[in-house]
């Protein structure tokens, strides 16, 4: 399997044949029972929050498939779970692949978990095809990617990559007031039988490469009838909180000219931000998704309005100046109220490695699959691997572009295509 | 005290002198202890919701002052409480005066309760001045004017006037799930010692006139340095609920051109409504005070946005066509979402009786007080009396125009002025 240059892949008919569509689909179905529910429209969703009993159960289920194959488990201080396929060359840097196992509260059966199961399927196929690899391959399940229970998401990959210290979120609490640190300690205690490993590149060696398979969460592959998305990168994100303060008044008595109405100034501010964010190319993403008004009484002029801004763009030349202009745009749009603008998250666009992209594209094409290069609009753990090692992602189609919803769906053939491409990519990279 | 025509009043120095500034102020202070609290700014507020133990206590306190004077108590099926000063002419229609004793949750010491205490002070002054009146005078405390615990407000006066059947709100529940009907029954049981009377004009005779003293709840009298507001009427109100339905999407992946963003369509709708409601004369009142967004997540495009409209105007020629245009304005402003518009309250402007206004103005001027005619922006029980009998209101200044807040304040001299004017008005009307 040694490649002649950095992007070529050999055809691997035995390996491709060793990927089992039915086995992978059955595992997806078994995982979907942990936190599974059926919504009012008959869709089968999953609610499996990070560090819950269900999350622990899903990890045990994964181990029940991985350990009989001879894969070696380990867990780090953030609860990131690894399954190692050993390579033939002592000390060679590992190729890593995986994703996360937690879900959104009203989530689907594929987001995250499929990436972990595809990595297992790929490694199992490599082993069952009798292929040795020079480098080890490590399957990874990152802790708390979704951030639905404990915000923000991507805690596992952020700590692993040194992006944040590992104790950053110990005092973060969920909606019931439970501490992240306590739930993490409970997970580690429950998995005391699994060997502890150093925390990522903070305490251990850099991997050779990282590849994350994921559903697209958008409509492009389906609408264009394509099999595989070769992901070029993840757009940058800047999140803001705008808090407007006015003055309450009686809705019947206070003349409009004398009011300091926080709702009206909020509307003016959103109008101004819409103008700032106007983009004829439709690449920019600008969302006001959360609004809170106080006292929120129908016959009282509001003295408080808070709203969030989720602004994303793949190009730093747009992301940085437009994001920097938000504060001044807000202040200029106010008429009678005061406002504070707080940036709560700032992630520059991540560009995936050209070698990994080329390897994915070549593997897919050698299998007769159609591809396109495309950016990811959503966050993924992969973005925190970009500064660490050559990183890439493999997308498969999402029906209707739906994700974070029980209607999320990819076909058995589509997820099998993804696992076959991943198997060939891992085999190729692990022999570089 | 017989007047020579319908608007003249005689000077009544003995009566004016019989009004006690200190006695009234002390009663206001005693009432303010029932539900009293001190807020973070040191203001002394009141939280005395309708039909609570505190409300019952305040009625007993009122009775403890009224009964020794010889006033006759009675209560009707809605819990409206009456204290009757008997007249000299058998069967003559009564003059009524009063207001309500319940408060807003974060309310002040004057809104409502002062109107009842002013009526008591006026009647006590008439009796202590040794004046007989031809007509009886009835002090009234209406049940649940504020609507803060059980919505809507003005239940007592609406049922009394036949505006709504008396059992309309039996199943209305407060925030703890307690039924209005049960709390009303408990009040009536606790006041079984008080004679029951027929319910208003539904079961009994029409009064001769009704006069309600109240704080202004606006800044006009204070800013113009005037003593007494002669209220010309209550502006009309129309309340609407707008519910916008779009579609959730991932804030990072969904192109703006494909979204059905309920927040963005809500902003468009509010812009359009602002244009519809633009009023260079600043008489119109238009308020969006309550907003709810769903799922209200910072990185999810909203599929639901609900907001309230509180629209008021004193002129039906504005209130009716602009209110009727709201639905079409909403629908025309939508781009991708659907919306429903529901009118939840509709009260035409109420015009107070010219004779009552003239009597109030003449009484105030005969006492050397300055006056202005002015509309009321807020609701009052008086508006439901307008179709029943000649009705009017007396306003006194509110410091800073503040009401429904612990900072609500009028001076001892201002509330005494109001009681003196009311005493002369009642004596005049009760001798017509």
From TrEMBL, chains A, B:
<feature type="binding site">
    <location>
        <position position="146"/>
    </location>
    <ligand>
        <name>Zn(2+) 2</name>
    </ligand>
</feature>
<comment type="similarity">
    <text>Belongs to the peptidase M20 family.</text>
</comment>
<dbReference type="GO" id="GO:0016813">
    <property type="term" value="F:hydrolase activity, acting on carbon-nitrogen (but not peptide) bonds, in linear amidines"/>
</dbReference>
<keyword id="KW-0378">Hydrolase</keyword>
<dbReference type="GO" id="GO:0046872">
    <property type="term" value="F:metal ion binding"/>
</dbReference>
<keyword id="KW-0862">Zinc</keyword>
<dbReference type="InterPro" id="IPR011650">
    <property type="entry name" value="Peptidase_M20_dimer"/>
</dbReference>
<feature type="binding site">
    <location>
        <position position="214"/>
    </location>
    <ligand>
        <name>Zn(2+) 1</name>
    </ligand>
</feature>
<feature type="binding site">
    <location>
        <position position="404"/>
    </location>
    <ligand>
        <name>Zn(2+) 2</name>
    </ligand>
</feature>
<feature type="domain" description="Peptidase M20 dimerisation">
    <location>
        <begin position="233"/>
        <end position="317"/>
    </location>
</feature>
<dbReference type="InterPro" id="IPR036264">
    <property type="entry name" value="Bact_exopeptidase_dim_dom"/>
</dbReference>
<feature type="binding site">
    <location>
        <position position="100"/>
    </location>
    <ligand>
        <name>Zn(2+) 1</name>
    </ligand>
</feature>
<dbReference type="InterPro" id="IPR002933">
    <property type="entry name" value="Peptidase_M20"/>
</dbReference>
<dbReference type="Pfam" id="PF07687">
    <property type="entry name" value="M20_dimer"/>
</dbReference>
<protein>
    <submittedName>
        <fullName>N-carbamoyl-L-amino-acid hydrolase</fullName>
    </submittedName>
</protein>
<feature type="binding site">
    <location>
        <position position="111"/>
    </location>
    <ligand>
        <name>Zn(2+) 2</name>
    </ligand>
</feature>
<dbReference type="Pfam" id="PF01546">
    <property type="entry name" value="Peptidase_M20"/>
</dbReference>
<feature type="binding site">
    <location>
        <position position="111"/>
    </location>
    <ligand>
        <name>Zn(2+) 1</name>
    </ligand>
</feature>
<dbReference type="InterPro" id="IPR010158">
    <property type="entry name" value="Amidase_Cbmase"/>
</dbReference>
<keyword id="KW-0479">Metal-binding</keyword>
């Amino acid at each position: 399997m040694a490649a002649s240059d950095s992007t070529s892949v050999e055809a691997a008919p035995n390996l491709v044949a060793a990927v089992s569509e039915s086995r992978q689909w059955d595992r997806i179905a078994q995982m979907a029972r942990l936190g599974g529910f059926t919504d009012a429209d008959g869709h089968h969703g999953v609610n499996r929050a990070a560090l819950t009993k269900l999350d622990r159960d899903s990890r045990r289920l994964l181990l029940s498939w991985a350990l009989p194959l001879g894969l070696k488990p380990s867990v780090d201080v953030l609860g990131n779970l690894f399954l190692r396929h050993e390579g033939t060359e002592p000390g060679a840097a590992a190729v890593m692949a995986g994703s996360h196992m937690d879900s959104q509260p009203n989530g689907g059966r594929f987001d995250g978990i499929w990436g972990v199961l595809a990595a297992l399927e790929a490694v199992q196929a490599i082993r069952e095809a009798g292929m040795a690899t020079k480098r080890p391959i490590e399957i990874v399940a990152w802790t708390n990617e979704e951030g639905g229970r404990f915000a923000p998401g991507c805690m596992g990959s952020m700590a692993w990559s040194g992006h944040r210290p590992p104790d950053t979120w110990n005092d973060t609490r969920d909606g019931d007031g439970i501490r992240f640190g306590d739930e993490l300690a409970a997970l580690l205690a429950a998995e005391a039988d699994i060997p502890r490993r150093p925390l990522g590149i903070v305490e251990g060696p850099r991997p050779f490469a990282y590849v994350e398979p994921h559903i697209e969460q958008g409509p492009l592959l389906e609408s264009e009838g394509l099999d595989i998305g070769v992901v070029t990168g993840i757009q940058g994100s800047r999140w803001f909180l705008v808090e407007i303060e006015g003055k309450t008044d009686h809705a019947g008595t206070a003349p409009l000219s004398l009011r300091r109405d926080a709702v009206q100034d909020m509307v003016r501010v959103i109008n101004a931000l819409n103008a700032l964010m106007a983009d004829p190319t439709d690449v920019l993403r600008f969302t006001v998704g959360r609004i809170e008004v106080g006292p929120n009484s129908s016959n009282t002029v509001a003295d408080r309005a808070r709203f969030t801004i989720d602004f994303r763009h793949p190009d730093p030349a747009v992301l940085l100046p437009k994001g920097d202009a938000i504060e001044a745009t807000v202040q200029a749009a106010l008429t009678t109220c005061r406002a504070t603008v707080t940036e709560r998250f700032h992630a520059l666009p991540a560009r995936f490695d050209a070698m990994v992209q080329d390897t994915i594209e070549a593997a897919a094409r050698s299998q007769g699959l159609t591809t396109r290069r495309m950016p990811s609009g959503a966050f993924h753990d992969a973005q925190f691997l970009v500064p660490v090692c050559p990183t890439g992602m493999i997308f498969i189609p999402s029906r209707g572009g739906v994700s974070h919803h029980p209607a999320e769906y990819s076909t058995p053939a589509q997820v099998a295509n993804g696992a076959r491409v991943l198997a060939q990519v891992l085999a190729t990279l692990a022999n570089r």
